[in-house]
């Protein structure tokens, strides 16, 4: 088991580069096949564009001391209170015991308003549904579920432009004054973690042209997200001592 958190800077950059490469290749295959998909849709209808980022999350779990051969990683439904269930993108179990539940999403393009509102509605609803199910005893787990959210946002002018507020019925929180869509994304996920609706969140700003990766604040950086995953793995090991989690780990 690792004694300290590795530096994932290069790993994140490589995974994001792969993300852009897959989107580009999917768009090209769609064009060559004569498909009618246009614009951004042609980049994502082939699926699997987030594979490299999912593998990076698995690497973090392995670095944190969970043997790869003992993990089952799937997109799986999680029971809710307001809905029967909702599928989360990455559900990792070890011998049928849930280790982490992570949503893995991306938003690209030049229309942040509607796209991000849809994503925030979804993220808030998913988390609230799970925690209400826990409170009502629908989810009965010895260890509190661990919810994480990874969001990749295209770093472009539209997302970084400060926008004027709409005429709301009541004044908005001053925190949102003179903010860009990217700023508001950071505020949203930071507050989701502060209010314990998420255990950790990562908001990656990824520039399609330069390949650069950045974050609005350190608490939403991948390094912080990975640190929270490490903490969860320590907790899981401490409360599941009947599972031999050292089986298959390299010695030394």
Put the structure in a nutshell:
The chain is of the alpha/beta class. 40% of the residues lie in helices and 19% in strands.
C-alpha geometry = globular
With strands numbered from the N-terminus, the spatial order across the biggest sheet is 1-2-3-4-5-6
Sheet with the most strands, sense and barrel status: 6 strands, mixed
Strand content: 15-25%
Based on CA atoms alone, the radius of gyration comes out at 19 Å
Domain module count? 1
Number of strands: 6
- Give the SSE order as H and E letters: HHHEEEHEHHEEH
List the helices and strands and how they pair.
Elements: H1 9-32, H2 41-44, H3 51-63, E1 71-79, E2 85-94, E3 97-107, H4 112-135, E4 147-154, H5 157-160, H6 181-194, E5 200-206, E6 213-214, H7 222-239
Parallel strand pairs: 3-4, 4-5
Antiparallel strand pairs: 1-2, 2-3, 5-6
Structural notes for this entry:
This protein has 252 residues and is α/β, with parallel strands linked by helices. It has one domain (9-239). 40% of the residues lie in helices and 19% in strands. It is built from 7 helices and 6 strands, in the order αααβββαβααββα. It has helices spanning 9-32, 41-44, 51-63, 112-135, 157-160, 181-194, 222-239, and strands spanning 71-79, 85-94, 97-107, 147-154, 200-206, 213-214. Strands 1-2-3-4-5-6 form a 6-stranded mixed beta sheet, with helices on both faces. Helix 4 (112-135) links the parallel strand 3 and strand 4 (147-154). The longest helix has 24 residues, at 9-32. It is globular and about 55 Å long. Mean pLDDT is 88; it is low at 30-47.
């Amino acid at each position: 088991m690792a004694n300290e958190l590795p530096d994932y800077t290069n790993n994140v950059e490589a995974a994001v580069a792969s993300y852009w490469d897959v989107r580009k290749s999917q768009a090209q295959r769609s064009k060559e096949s004569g498909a009618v998909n246009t614009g951004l849709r042609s980049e994502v209808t082939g699926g699997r564009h987030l594979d490299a980022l999912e593998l990076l999350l698995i690497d973090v779990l392995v670095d944190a001391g969970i043997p790869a051969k003992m993990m089952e990683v799937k997109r799986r439904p999680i029971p809710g209170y307001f809905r029967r269930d909702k599928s989360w993108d990455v559900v990792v179990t070890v011998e049928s015991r849930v280790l982490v539940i992570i949503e893995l999403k991306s938003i690209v393009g030049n229309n942040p308003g509607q796209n991000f509102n849809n994503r925030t509605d979804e993220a808030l609803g998913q988390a609230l549904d799970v925690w209400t199910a826990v409170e009502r005893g629908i989810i009965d787990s010895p260890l509190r579920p661990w919810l994480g959210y990874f969001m990749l946002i295209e770093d472009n002018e539209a997302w970084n432009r400060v926008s004027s507020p709409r005429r709301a019925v009541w004044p908005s929180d001053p925190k949102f004054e003179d903010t860009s869509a990217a700023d508001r994304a950071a505020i949203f996920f930071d507050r989701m973690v502060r209010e314990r609706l998420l255990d950790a969140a990562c908001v990656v700003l990824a520039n399609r042209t330069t390949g650069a990766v950045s974050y609005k604040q350190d608490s939403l950086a991948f390094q912080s997200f990975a640190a929270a995953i490490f903490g969860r793995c320590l907790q899981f090991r401490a409360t599941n001592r009947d599972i031999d989690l050292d089986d298959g780990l390299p010695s030394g």
